[in-house]
Amino acid sequence: MTLDFTVVADVACGVGESPVYDEATRQLYFVDIPGCLVYAADLPTGQRRSWRFESAVGSLGLAASGRLVVALRDRVILFDPRTGERQELCTVEADRPETRLNDGRVGPDGAFWVGTMDDRPQKEPIASLYRVDPSGRVERKVEGLTVSNGLAWTIDGVTLFHSDSRGPWIDRWRFDPRTGAISDRTRIATLDEATGRPDGGSCDAEGFYWSAGVSAGRLNRFSAEGRLVESFAVPVPYPTMPCFGGPDYRTLYLTSLRGAHPPEVLDRAPRSGSLLAAAAPVAGFPAWRFRDA
């Protein structure tokens, strides 16, 4: 089986990430981390908007109020794309210039889960995974990470997947959607450059975990036990994160990066940094929303 990807937004992101589909507006939000940008692609019309922020934008999620919860370098804010209003929710590791916020996602508990990463070239295990509740309270959940990534939950809300891009590994946790408690950590996969270091991830409605193999130009589908059941080649060398969207959640969206790669690499892959889409072989499901309302 192959996936036939087309370009939805040719935006040449330095590092495109964090795609999420808003069924209320039929827009696909995503970020360009080094570009300090949040994008909104209006899928029915093909129109696109963007907003610039004062620092790197690591990730975002939908909020119940219609706002977005956005991870900047060391702060989490609420942003209203209708008015442009920005409200600080909390700071995270603001006293540590060597780290920044990275992959984040709203969980079935209505909180924003976001990890940090070592932003230095040497990449050491000094990062953590945090839970940010609607009051702005920050709770550290996991320590000893290098590049926290790949947050995704199963449709029933009781299983969390989480990866470290420099591990490189994927873990599975038991998750309590009422309290946000995590337990029973299990290492389900240890990967390599050829299979694809795990970047962003997403779950389908059947309970399988899709992981962007950023080092291999592949999109990998794992069982809950960590078995690689399918691996799809994608038309960009550095895919970063998948998500499901569209009215029936049968479209697979994929962000990608350009980075600081040599011109000869980018010349062979002119769609690098674009937002791509393909018909999905399975359905996804709606994203959870941050309980700010």
TrEMBL record:
Active site residues according to the UniProt entry: D199
Gene Ontology MF, one: gluconolactonase activity
GO biological process, one term: L-ascorbic acid biosynthetic process
Domain SMP-30/Gluconolactonase/LRE-like region: start-end pairs: 15-257
Cofactor or coenzyme needed: Zn(2+)
Record: residues binding substrate: R100, N102
Record Gene3D superfamilies: TolB, C-terminal domain (2.120.10.30)
Sorted UniProt keywords: Metal-binding, Zinc
SUPFAM superfamilies (UniProt xref): Calcium-dependent phosphotriesterase (SSF63829)
Cofactor, how bound (note): Binds 1 divalent metal cation per subunit.
TM ranges: none
Binding site for a divalent metal cation: E17, N149, D199
Similarity-based family: Belongs to the SMP-30/CGR1 family.
Protein name: Gluconolaconase
The species this protein was found in: Inquilinus limosus MP06
Lineage of source species: Bacteria, Pseudomonadati, Pseudomonadota, Alphaproteobacteria, Rhodospirillales
